[in-house]
Amino acid sequence: MRTNLSPIAADSIVQRALVPGGAYWSGVVSRWSTLRIVDRDGRGSGSCLFYNARETTERYNAPDTVKIQNQIFLTEPMALFSDLGRIMFAIAADTAGCHETLCGATTAQTNAAKYLPRTYSDARNGYVRNARDNFVAALGRHGLGARDIVMPFNLWQRVEVGDDGRLNNTTDGLVAGIGIDLRAEMDVLAVISNTPHVLDRGLEYAPGPLEITIWSSSPPVFDDPCRTGTPERSRGAANSDILASSGGSSR
User: Using CA atoms, how far apart are residues 194 and 28, in angstroms rounded to an integer?
Assistant: First the structure.
């Protein structure tokens, strides 16, 4: 399902940021606030990590998110689950229609194998940055580190498993301005690396800017499909509600 992104009331905006290609962003998204990520140029870059902002040992769990919903192509009205069975984010709206969570993130080694090496000075500030190094730098601002990196949520990409077991990036039709709305079901620390997908089909290192907006949105309606569409989502939503009622840090 693809839904147009609705306008955001100016007085509800908590934060705006423009993340250049190769850079990273991190911040806390409070419960019932929404994180909107827009691919300004349609270049398909962006890898994300999510943590319980009040208890960071709880974090996004890619295998459970896929298994619980029996779907490797994530879009509206699905949910992103933590390793404790709680919904962290609900995919409230999505104009891309497909995001993946199988492939992991780029590293210095994967970048070196694909792109010509470039130094910071030789490339006039446009050197080749990778998601893992960006994650380490961003997480360090929040008392976390390399050991806290998990499988990321990769934006805009469609990756299929071939008959030979290989992962194949079949992404097609990306356009400028595609976006996703992630409604927080708990207080979430979000980390975003604006770097190409590890299986990006482009031959050049050319990530475009991402536009980040956080705003205070309304609590979901009673029968919101992100929370009630399946028994598993209902249980995950209930677990998130219990966490909120306990102050947000109970394990």
Answer: 17
Alpha carbon distance 96, 4 (integer Å): 10
How many Å apart are CA 69 and CA 48, to the nearest integer? 19
- The DSSP secondary structure of 88-100, one letter per residue, reads EEEEEEESS--BB
| Residues 44 and 175: beta-carbon distance below 8 Å | no
pTM of the model: 0.94
d(CA 92, CA 68): 18
- pLDDT value of position 1: 46
CA-based nearest residue to 30, from 8, 9, 47, 54 = 54
pLDDT, residue 140, reads: 97
**Among 53-57, 84-88, 153-157, 162-166, the least confident range:** 162-166
Write the DSSP assignment of 107-148 as a string of letters.
Answer: -HHHHHHHS----TTTTTT-----HHHHHHHHHHTTT--GGG
Mean pLDDT of the chain: 93
Angle at 178 between CA 172 and CA 181, to 5 degrees: 125
243 closest CA partner among 53, 62, 72: 53
